[in-house]
């Protein structure tokens, strides 16, 4: 954080969200990935504080905070937070956030065992006509979560199709971590048949 300065968020370096929030968002997400939940909580709370009333910054950290809540088994709390974010994004036309918010809500519903609700929310971004170029990370995560939902319903063919979509996008974007999630989904789908 040594490079941060008071004017960093004012200049934003071409980002719609505050850079100090995005930095903490990425770090919190990475900490969740390696199982450092307490440190992720601290980082996410600091990002929320820095976001203040800036809605786009808040939406970005909120989906990671919801991921943390899901990992902590606090699924209903995650859904409540994500529902508010989803509504704000719909009202303000923040199309970039549709895929990742739907993916996170789908994860929470799957964790609760509500496969029907998961498949319903996971289908919405594609019906909202949002291009793949907008938030490729969100789309990749959506495809992986769709695949998990299809596995939960026993539809292995659709799970493989979702995995292939996620893998193609991750390869195109040069994102090895996303490729790994897509490959795991594909492996799970092939083993399940």
Main sheet, how many strands, which sense, barrel?
none
What is the β-strand count?
Answer: 0
> What multimeric state do the chains show?
single chain
Helix share of residues? over 70%
Total helix count? Answer: 10
Spell the H/E element sequence: HHHHHHHHHH
- Cα-to-Cα separation, first versus last residue: 47 Å
Q: Which class best fits the helix and strand makeup?
A: mainly alpha
Poorly predicted runs: none
Averaged pLDDT: 89
* β-sheet strand percentage: under 5%
Radius of gyration based on Cα positions? 16 Å
Q: How would you sum up the global shape?
A: globular
Give a description of the structure.
The chain has 193 residues and is mainly alpha-helical. The chain is 78% helix and 0% strand. The protein contains 10 helices and no strands. The chain has helices spanning 8-11, 19-33, 37-51, 55-71, 75-92, 98-112, 115-127, 136-153, 156-173, 176-192. The longest helix has 18 residues, at 75-92. The protein is globular and about 45 Å long. The model has no long low-confidence stretch (mean pLDDT 89).
Fold blueprint:
Blueprint: H1 8-11, H2 19-33, H3 37-51, H4 55-71, H5 75-92, H6 98-112, H7 115-127, H8 136-153, H9 156-173, H10 176-192
Observed structural traits:
10 helices, 78% helix, globular
How is this structure best summarized?
The model has no long low-confidence stretch (mean pLDDT 89). The protein has ten helices and no strands. By secondary structure, it is mostly helical.
